[in-house]
Design a protein that fits this description.
By secondary structure, the chain is mainly β. It has four helices and 20 strands. The chain has a five-stranded antiparallel β-sheet with strand order 3-2-1-4-5, with no helix packed on it. Strands 8-7-6-9-10 form a five-stranded antiparallel β-sheet, with no helix packed on it. Strands 11-12-13-15-14 form a five-stranded mixed barrel. The C terminus is likely disordered.
């Protein structure tokens, strides 16, 4: 019988060697269990105990009575405890020591790599020399553990962790809570508000529950809700400007709109359309202006959330353009 790191084995306590700890044996091989790895009562010589095998700081195989959060070949979601820019991320595995997720397992783009506090779905494996290492769990491993999303999730807001990010979109394992490991989802690139990093917790809306139990997700509100929120955001932005005007309109490029307001060009046009229908703004070429602002940009809120000119101002005056 061989002692394999990452597995739990029932070993016999052979002898105590002070000041180090106890030597456990499978009948052929011995492994040290340091005093710091004990749990519960003092163990007895000759008794059998379940211990988890790992490599210590000096790359020697060792034993512990502590229970790990992951075992060899298993998938688990582990929190990022620390980051080393040249080595990788260190994950908390429940033993008072950390598990390396090498840079080679992470996205090439630095901004897509996990941060401290993120939680990454990984598989416990061995590196080339047998040490324990984490490898990112992919769709095929996660799909076997996921449950089918119920149809009642349609339009519900859910939370989960990003398992992979591509140009076409991001894969997410939705938090299963008491139901189980989680449900598998996908956020298309057009439904992301930004690029998402590996292990990031994200909140998204279920837009479609597929026949196979997976779901499509969006980080955007439904159009009718989003239009109200976006129009309020744009109106507040314009009110904050000195002359109540902004150099953005239907003619503005999508990339500029995304950078400035964090929404798509189509969402921006929907919000502007609402504001114009409500008579709050008007477009002049590439500019959008408040329709009721005095030359100094002063505004007074009218009953019902509308706006009227400040007292003593010319209602027909048009705001000057900002520099």
């Amino acid at each position: 019988m061989s002692l394999v790191a990452g597995t739990t084995m029932k070993l016999k306590l052979a002898r105590e060697v002070s000041p180090y700890g106890y030597f456990m044996t499978d009948g052929e091989n011995e492994v040290l269990m340091h005093y710091t790895e004990l749990v519960g009562h003092r163990p007895q010589i000759g008794q059998f105990y379940d211990v988890f095998l790992f490599y210590d700081s000096e790359d020697r195989i060792a034993a512990t009575m502590k229970k790990p959060l992951i075992a060899l070949g298993e998938v688990a979601r582990l929190a990022v405890a620390d980051i080393h820019p040249r080595i990788g991320a260190f994950l908390e595995m429940g033993l008072g020591r950390q598990l390396l997720l090498p840079l080679s397992e992470q996205p090439e783009l630095k901004e897509l790599r996990p941060h401290r506090g993120d939680e990454v779905h990984v598989i416990l494996a061995h590196d080339k020399i047998g040490r324990l290492v984490a490898k990112v769990a992919f769709e095929e491993e996660l799909a076997e553990l996921a449950f089918r999303a119920p149809s009642s999730w349609q339009n519900a807001w859910v939370e989960g962790w990003v398992t992979k990010t591509l140009k076409i979109g991001s894969f997410v394992m939705i938090d299963g809570g008491v139901l189980g490991f989680g449900a598998f989802g996908f956020i298309p690139a057009s439904d992301r508000t930004r690029m998402l990093r590996l292990g990031e917790r994200v909140k998204a809306r279920v837009t479609f529950v597929r026949e196979d139990g997976r779901v499509n997700l969006s980080m955007h509100q439904r159009k009718e809700v989003g239009r109200l929120e976006d129009s309020d955001r744009i109106l507040a932005f314009m009110k904050a400007r000195q002359n109540g005007a902004m150099p953005y309109s239907d003619e503005t490029g999508a990339d500029i709109i995304k950078q400035k307001f964090g929404i798509s060009k189509s969402a921006f046009k929907r919000a502007l359309g609402k504001l114009m229908r409500d008579g709050l703004v008007a477009q002049e070429g590439s500019w959008t202006k408040l329709t009721e602002a005095d030359a100094a940009g002063g505004r007074v809120e009218a009953p019902g959330g509308g706006a009227r000119p400040a007292a003593g101002t010319n209602a027909a005056a048009k705001p000057g353009l900002p520099e």
